[in-house]
Specification:
The protein is mostly helical. It folds into two domains: 68 residues; 66 residues, Arc Repressor Mutant, subunit A (Orthogonal Bundle). α5 crosses α7. The radius of gyration is 21 Å and the shape is elongated. Belongs to the sigma-70 factor family. ECF subfamily. Keywords: Sigma factor, Transcription, Transcription regulation. GO terms for molecular function: DNA binding; sigma factor activity. This is RNA polymerase sigma factor.
Amino acid sequence: MVRFDFETVVKETKYLVLKTIGETLIDRFDDATEDVVQEVYFRVFKSLEKGGFDGRSKISTWIYTIAKNESLRMNEKRLREEEKAKRYLQKNKYDLFQSDGNNSLLKDDWIESLLGTIPEVYRQTLRLYLSGKSMDEIASELQIKQGTVKSRLFRTKEWIRKTLPGVKNEFQES
């Protein structure tokens, strides 16, 4: 069994891991990159400690596969969370319409009224994000840094959680 220095393994594979995650992770989930990197190296470390790397391939190939799989796993998790959020919004939309007795409101009107409650500094970023634009596209269009886009989206999510009753518990993983 070959012994590996974990620090050396990380130094030699960090660019490969980041590149793999960047290519595999859906653009709108870029904020999860650090979590994926951490999970990749956690799995690598745990497996190396147990002798899980058998040496039939290069260690970089093995780590590439782990990075690819962890990125795909994060994509699946985030897509499930989005679906859960959509179901929650649809359910609450229905409840709001029933309690108001006003069934004439359209989905777009309801979303626009919800967006109208978000502070202006975050509203434009959220609209672009919800329209399916990537972090780079949003940053370019608003002429701000990509980190600012991520920060604004994070703060928007926090604002929504604090402002809309019951949202925080509904979005948390069970």
